[in-house]
Amino acid sequence: MKIYPLRIGRTKVPYGQFYGGLQGFSLADFAADKDHFIWVPIHAYLIDHPTVGPVLVDTGISAAQTAHVDYYAGSIMEHVMDVDEYALPADQTITAQLGLLGYQPGDIRAVIITHFHEDHIGELNLFAHAPVYLGAAEYAARNDRLLGLVPLAYPPSIAAVSDWRPLDFTGPGIGGFAGSADLFGDRSVIALPTPGHSPGSTSVLVDQRFLLTGDAMYTIRHLAVDQVRAIQVGDESQYVDSIRRIHWLRRAVPELIILTAHDHTDYGTRMISGLATGELADADLAWAKAYEVATFDEMANLNPARLPRFVPACRAGEVGHAA
After folding, report:
1. Prediction pTM value
2. Do 245 and 210 touch, CB atoms closer than 8 A?
3. How far is CA 67 from the centre of its chain?
C-alpha cells in the first residue's frame, strides 16, 4: 500500500505556538506576538488503498481561505488570525496535488480528518461525496466555541458534508493505546485517539508502518514532551498523555515512521521527500532511525544539542525560522 504526502501550501505561526508551551506562552501572546513568526508546511496525505481506492487524510487549506477577510468575514477569526497566515501556490492546491498522482477530487473514496482546525479541513467540501471519518469526541464538539468565540469547526468549511462517520475506538489496543478503530476491516488503516490539541484529535496508523499524527504532534521533536511542548488551548494533560502513548507505540512498532502535518525539521523534510513515490526506500528508513537515535534517548528525551531555538530573519520584515 502506498502513501503520498500532499504539500498544501504553508502557514505562518508564532514560534511560541509550536515551542512555547513550557515557557508560559499564552493565548494573549499568540494574538500579540508579531516578532517571532516562522513558516511551516501544511501536509495532507493520500493513501492508495488496494481495495478501497484513494483515501485522504486531511485536506489542507483552500484558495478561498487565503482571501482571509472575505472568507472569515463576520467571524471572530477575521480578527484573531493574521490576514497572511496562509500561502497557497497554484501548484499546491489539493486539486493540483491530486492531479500529479492521476486523481481528481471525485476519485476519493473516503476522507479521514485528524481534527477540525481550519488548516486541515479547508477543502473538505470538495469531497462531500465521500464518507468522512473522525473521532467521535471531535464530531460531538464541532459546535463548541473556544472562549465562547471561535467555533471548533468553521461552518462554511464543512457545509457540504453529510456522511459523517464518528469513531468510538472500541477495537483492540496497540502500543500505548487501549482502543482503536479499524476503518476498512483489514488492519491496514487504523485510527487511534490522540486528544489534547483538540477534543477528539485522531492519529492514523497506516500499514503498521506510518503514523499520521495531524497536530497531536507538530514535529518529531515534540516526542520529548517534557522538553518541547506546543501551546495548548485544550486539555494539556490529554495532550501529554497522547504523546506518551505515541511513544509506547514506537516501542511496540520499532520501524514506525511518524509523519505530522507541519514538521519543518530535517526529519520531516527527508521523510516527505522520501515518500514522493509512495514508498520509503531502505536508505530513508535507515536515515530516519539514525536521526532518532541521535535525537532521543530510549525514554524520548531530547538531545540537548537539538533543542529548538528561534532564529530571526536577516532582513527586517521577513519571517524567521526555528532551528
Report:
1. 0.97
2. no
3. 22
DSSP states along 151-202? ESS-HHHHTT---EEEE---B--BTTBS-BEESSSSSSEEEEE--SSSTT-E
| DSSP secondary structure, 43-57, as one string | EEEEEEETTTEEEEE
Give the pLDDT confidence of 196-238 residue by residue, as tens digits: 999 999 999 999 999 999 999 999 999 999 999 999 887 899 9
CA nearest neighbour of 88 among 133, 142, 136, 43? 43
Q: How many residues make up the chain in this entry? A: 323
Residue 182: partners with Cβ closer than 8 Å, 6 or more residues away: 171, 189, 190
Q: Which domains does the chain have, with CATH numbers?
A: 2-322 (3.60.15.10)
Cα separation of 199 and 180, whole Å? 16
Angle at 129 between CA 124 and CA 131, to 5 degrees: 75
Q: What is the pLDDT of residues 281-313, one digit of tens each?
A: 999 999 999 999 999 999 999 999 999 999 999
Q: Any idea which residue has 462517520 for its cell?
A: 165
